[in-house]
Specification:
By secondary structure, the protein is mainly alpha-helical. The chain is built from 4 helices and no strands. The longest helix is centred in the first third of the chain and has 37 residues. The chain is elongated, with a radius of gyration of 17 Å. The relative contact order is 0.14.
């Protein structure tokens, strides 16, 4: 984040807070993606019912929202864009399709 003077103690603290918030958002995003994967694994082993379809849709919305939040934070922090972001976090295509959509 080149827009903050790291020699300024207050600016350094702000930078630290921003980093902590970003990594907390990344952890939440990763957890929501893992919850979605867990449901997908469970559904693969059994017949899918209406409750599971509804639950998966909710998890898709949650994962898309969390990915969107992380992307917004990356942009706000002026972090460089990585072409492999979606692959690195194994973000499914159906989550990508819901990015930025209201629930």
């Amino acid at each position: 984040m080149a827009f903050i003077d790291s020699d300024n103690p207050l600016a350094a603290e702000i930078l630290q807070e921003a980093g902590e918030a970003y990594f907390a958002a990344c952890r939440k995003m990763a957890a929501s993606l893992e919850a979605l994967r867990a449901v997908d694994r469970a559904v693969a082993l059994s017949a899918q019912d209406d409750e599971q379809v509804t639950r998966r849709s909710q998890l898709l919305d949650d994962a898309a929202e969390r990915v969107h939040f992380v992307l917004i934070q990356r942009d706000a922090m002026k972090l460089s864009w990585s072409e492999t972001f979606f692959e690195d976090y194994e973000i499914p295509v159906d989550v990508r399709a819901r990015l930025g959509r209201p629930r």
